[in-house]
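A quick word before the example. In earlier lectures we treated sequence and structure as two separate objects. From today on, think of them as two lines of the same record. Here is Glycosyl transferase written that way.
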Amino acid sequence: MQYPRISIITVVRNGEQDLENAIKSVVNQTYGHIEYIILDGLSTDGTLDIIQKYASQIALWKSEADRGIFDAMNKGLDLATGDYVYFLGCDDVLSSPTIIEEVAAEMTQRDGIYYGNTYLKKSNQIYTGKVSRWNIALRNISHQAIFYPKSIYKEKKYNLDYKLTADHIYNVELYSRYESQFVYLPKLISLYNDLGMSSTNVDPVHKKNIVGVVYKNLGSAVGTYYWFRVKVSNFKNSLAGGK
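And the structure line, produced from the sequence above:
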């Protein structure tokens, strides 16, 4: 496609400390076909002042109650009009002013699901490389590094049963159906704050259901492999905890 429209969505609540950097990384992009949407969850700090400061460069913003980050993200999917949608966290930034232009140049398949890498600031590492049926259950594609086409994001929403890791379930289910449409771009898309809620807390519903989700979507061989890896990891953690 020539010059695809990219909808970039940021959801935020009380993010005054970091939000301006995220906004700047979007509005300073060299690519001209960006629709920027910000959804605020009734912030009580200075977040709205920051949004209003850049209102002329934001296509749409709202401040209203939501049922959590993935409910807000689903609202963003309903509002987006782009050929592709991308989520940037309020405490994350795009890697360079040209990165959206670079990614857009690679979007030759209308239904391609394009993804790259993100830099984990706390862990000081690049995440995650090319995924496969065998490893997507173990290492999710960061939503700060993936672009979903309209044919996907207008039909599929995040499962709100998962409060912290609905994006992992989303990607596993997509990969099971559209594996051939996943296109890896060896590019650094963003700098990601891996001190956020989803990185530092356990989603109990995800922990309970993920083995079954993997079996159902990726097959019994992958499911058994994943189950074994989880058991080994849990055993190692129990040994470490006993020291």
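Notice the following. The domain at 6-241 is CATH 3.90.550.10 (Spore Coat Polysaccharide Biosynthesis Protein SpsA; Chain A). We will return to this example when we discuss secondary structure assignment.
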